[in-house]
Design brief:
Elements (H helix, E strand, L loop, with lengths): L2 E5 L3 H11 L7 E5 L2 H10 L4 E5 L7 H11 L4 E6 L4 H10 L4 E4 L6 H67 L1 H4 L3 H22 L6 H12 L6 E7 L7 H21 L3 E10 L2 E9 L12 H24 L6 E5 L3 E2 L2 E2 L1
Parallel strand pairs: 1-2, 1-3, 3-4, 4-5, 6-7, 8-9
Antiparallel strand pairs: 7-8, 10-11
Helix pairs in contact: 2-3, 5-7, 5-10, 7-9, 7-10, 8-9, 9-10
């Protein structure tokens, strides 16, 4: 039970309060004081739900008592009791002090005292519930702020890493597109440049800033590269027997994307099959590409530009594999990209 403190310097009145509250002692924990100083000291040491105090006290005024209690025990609900002698003074105290209720003496029935106590306790419970709710909200806000700070740090770290990858990839592209290295004319170099930069932009836009599961990657890649009406077919199979871990998927996903780009940017039509397998702790992605052996095979007609795009994609795949292995303790990543003629087949 919450404690109710009743303060009155008049011993006769105190005895009267005790008699009135005798029948309610099982439900009300009341403490009685004659001294203002002792009352304040008690509130310093112990939690008190309600303080009922006579306004006209010899040591200090009721207003002074309530002002002190507001500092030492702000959660305590304050109730003033008085026999009104000076109406203006009483109203002034009520207006200038944070008092929940004022009750008038003398009390003729127990309910005259019991009812105000129950009202004050109800007000105390409402304030406590609101305080706990506020504390919970503040704690949740702190946790959200902490989580946001951690996410911001993680995002900034990821952005720094991604900028590094982007600079490396751009270096590969620009180095290979140098006219002295490639031996291509401006037109062919421009065509290859557009393909390679689009490849890199897609990488930065989608795969570095999104966290997706296997099915999400499959849906995106099929939308990007699977167009049977144009003779462009792509199949993707997860043969690991379970969903891929998020960290693995982020890395393997771009390997799939590179395979799809290899087909889309170079070939007029194709049939690509991508398999993700697990052997022990190792995850392996295999990409097979079959294309027509006759007719219009290549989308990029210039042979040197086509070779450059293939070299860039292979170099990105190689760099990606190395980056994968460096970014994990177990180093269980592998990308195998098959793209060439083998045993009389165009694969």
């Amino acid at each position: 039970m919450e404690t109710v403190v009743i303060l009155d310097h008049n011993n006769k009145d105190i005895e009267g309060y005790k008699r009135m509250l005798e029948a309610s002692r099982e439900e009300l924990d009341c403490k009685f004081f004659h001294s203002s100083a002792e009352t304040v000291e008690y509130l310093r040491k112990y939690p008190v739900a309600v303080l009922i105090s006579e306004l006209e006290m010899p040591e200090m005024s009721g207003k002074e008592i309530f002002d002190i209690v507001e500092m030492v025990s702000p959660a305590t609900v304050r109730v003033a009791m008085t026999q009104v002698k000076d109406v203006s003074e009483t109203i002034g105290v009520f207006n200038q002090t944070r008092i929940f209720k004022m009750i008038l003496k003398p009390f003729f029935l127990p309910e005259d005292l019991i009812n105000p106590i129950h009202e004050a306790l109800g007000h105390f419970h409402r304030l406590e519930a609101e305080r706990k709710k506020q504390e919970k909200l503040e704690q949740e806000l702190k946790e959200l702020a902490k989580e946001e700070q951690e996410l911001s740090k993680a995002l900034e770290s990821k952005k720094r890493k991604n900028r590094g990858i982007s600079h490396v990839a751009l270096g590969i592209i620009r180095g290979n597109l140098d006219t002295e290295v490639s031996g291509m004319g401006p037109k062919a170099a421009s065509a290859a440049s557009e393909v390679c930069e689009e490849l890199l932009q897609e990488f930065m836009r989608y795969y570095l800033y999104e966290s997706c599961d296997f099915n999400s990657h499959v849906e995106y890649l099929l939308k990007k590269f699977h167009h049977p009406e144009n003779g462009c077919m792509m199949q993707i199979r997860n043969k690991t027997g379970h969903e891929l871990p998020e960290g693995i998927m982020e890395r393997i996903g771009y390997g799939m994307f590179l395979g799809g780009c290899m087909c889309q940017k170079i070939l007029s039509s194709y049939r690509a099959v991508m398999l993700v397998e697990k052997e022990g702790k190792n995850y392996t992605m295999r990409i097979f590409c079959q294309y027509p052996g006759k007719g219009n095979i290549y989308r990029i007609s210039d042979k040197r530009a086509r070779k450059l795009v293939v070299d860039v994609i292979k170099e990105l795949t190689k760099s990606l594999s190395a980056h994968m292995a460096m970014g994990t303790k177990e180093r269980h990543f592998a990308i195998k990209l098959y793209f060439g003629k083998e045993k009389g087949r165009n694969e």
